[in-house]
Amino acid sequence: MGVALIGYPVSPFVRKVRVALETKGISYTLDPIVPYTEREKVLTVNPAGTVPVLIPGESAAPITESADVVAWSDQTVPSPAIIPKDPQLRARALDVQRFADGQMAQVFGGMMFGQRIVVPYYFGKAQGKEDMVQNAITQLAPPLLDTVANLIGDESFVARDFSVADIAMASWLRGARLAGFQLDEARWPMVAQWLGRCFDQPGFASVIASEEKTEVVRWARARYAA
């Protein structure tokens, strides 16, 4: 048994892990289990019932946190490094990953992707809480995007080279885009340019191309002109 990754492809946490694995050139098989509809299957490998779950090998213990999977990938294949070796850049990249998987996840994930993708597509509801989505778009997202712009500054990437910091933040913005969120490129030009650079990275481009073949992405594009 080789490396196995469990999780539905459009999950931003799963996306982050897939981009890391693809960037590292680590071969893996994807088992696209959806925790909302196939919870019992997820519970067999992760008592928390969440994805992603990485199984590094037949006798290896599952890794159940996306940040830990990224760290495992960096230890397994050291180059190219996606967690910087320089102590200051490393601390910066990991801090930004926490920002992405905390504050950005709440707004671009739970309030946009969750309400517009997860609720209608996976739970079969007519729609999610659109008032929550609009509040996220108009009130909560702008200060977060200001923070992203400040983190990028005049650099190509957040921690000098393409790293987990970029992967994590871009993964949430990709999910929000699928949910119909449109980045105001005139207001945040540096963010738009940085996001394009992230999506052009071979590992990210490969994951996006794979996502585009899924039914949920076709559904989202038809519904939100994403």
TrEMBL record:
The keyword Ubl conjugation belongs to this UniProt entry's keyword annotation: no
Keywords, ordered alphabetically: Transferase
Domain GST N-terminal: residue ranges: 1-81
PROSITE patterns: GST_CTER, GST_NTER
The keyword Hydrolase is annotated on this UniProt entry: no
GST C-terminal domain boundaries: 86-216
GO MF: glutathione transferase activity; maleylacetoacetate isomerase activity
Single GO biological process annotation from the record: L-phenylalanine catabolic process
Gene3D superfamilies hit by this protein: 1.20.1050.10, Glutaredoxin (3.40.30.10)
Protein name (database record): Glutathione S-transferase
